[in-house]
Amino acid sequence: MEPTQPLSIKKRKIVFTLLVLLFIIVLPFLYLYATGYKLNLDATDTFVSTGGIYVAADRTGAEIYIDDELVRETRAFRRAFYAQGLETGTHKVHVQKPESHTWVKELPVYPHVVTEAQAFNMPLVPQVRVISAHRTAAGETVLPEEPIAHASTTNEYVLEDSLSPTVLLDDTEHQTLVQVFDDEAVVSLPSRIQEGIDSFLSSEEATTTATTTKVANGVALYESEGYVYARYVGEEENMPYYYCAPEYELLSEEVETVEGVAFADTHDDILLDEAPMAEVCDPTIQLDDKEQIITAFDFYPGSSDIVILALEDGIYVVEIDDRGWQNMQPLLLGDSLDMRVYNGGVYALDGAIMYQILLNT
Amino acid sequence: MNTEDSHLLPYARRKDFKVGRAVELSGRDKKIYRFLEILPGVASWVTLITVVLLSVYVPFIAAYFIIAFAVYWVLKTAFLSFHLRHNWARLRKNLKVDWAKMIERFEYGHLYHVVILPFYQEGEDVVDATLSSMANANYDTKSLVIVLAAEERAGEGAQKVAEKMREKWADTFGYFLVSTHPGDIVGELAGKGSNATWAAEEVRTKVLDPHGIRYNHTLVSIFDIDTVIYPDYFNCLVWHFMTARRPLKSSYQPVPVFNNNIWDASPLSRVVAMSSTFWEMVQQERPERMATFSSHSVSFQALYEIGYWQTNMVSEDSRIYWNLLVANDGEYDVVPLSYPVSMDANAAPTLWGTIKNIYKQHRRWTYGVENLVYIGYHFMKNKNIALKIRIKIFLRQAEGYWSLVTNPIMLFILGWAPIFLGGRVFHETVLSYNLPIVVRNLLTLSMFGLIISSIISLTLMPARPDGKSRLSYIVMAVQWFLVPITMITFSSLPGLDAQTRLMLGKYMGFWVTPKHRKDDKTA
Question: What is the ipTM of this complex?
Answer without folding.
Answer: 0.87
